[in-house]
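Fig. S4 source data, part A: sequence.
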Amino acid sequence: LPSFSEQQNIVELLDKSFAAIDKAKANAEENLQNAKELFDSYLKNIFENKSDDWEEKRFDDICVLQRGFDLPTRLRKKGKYPLVSSNGITDYVDLCKVKSPGVSTGRSGTIGKIHYIEDDYFPLNTSLYVKEFYGNDVKFIFYFLQQFDLSRFQSGAGVPTLNRNNVHPTKVYFPISKKEQKQITNKLEVLSLECKKLEVIYKQKLADLEEMKKSILNKAFSGQLSTLN
């Protein structure tokens, strides 16, 4: 062990170093959260500030939700088709029930998360999938459901459950023009990609800062702390 005075010096250096690291981590975490919220804010703004040619419609005149299918674990065989539950893709099986592209959400358990599926897939009975798009842009429906907040329709004191019959009569405003839907989707895709890039950067920064903290501790207890100056 180092002398008592040296221990005090090491502790002082560690305190200063860790305080600086913690501040940097707090900034990175704030930036990470801002990157996540940026997209959600932009998405919400699109549907709150609709153009004049949007029409009021029933939800089920835009898209129809349908309960998924039963497939007990003992009957599942490995395959190439995504098995979609309330949490999204959880496995791959040799059966498909719905042609791609598809959109699904949780019916039981996890409610409100929206999943976009690029391949033919098998939706489990814990999910609701979009059975009918009525010719609307599929990716636009995906974004529409993201901001719609299906979780507000959940019920059940134990396991949360989403009843599609409670959702379908809801009145919403929706762009009828397929061209406008695609234009909005393209803008959202670009912003989503940029936000994800930022998330990767800030997550890596947080990981690097944590590694730096471990490295400093290692140097402190191996007599190398002076090399940090």
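Fig. S4 source data, part B ends here. The chain has a mean pLDDT of 92.
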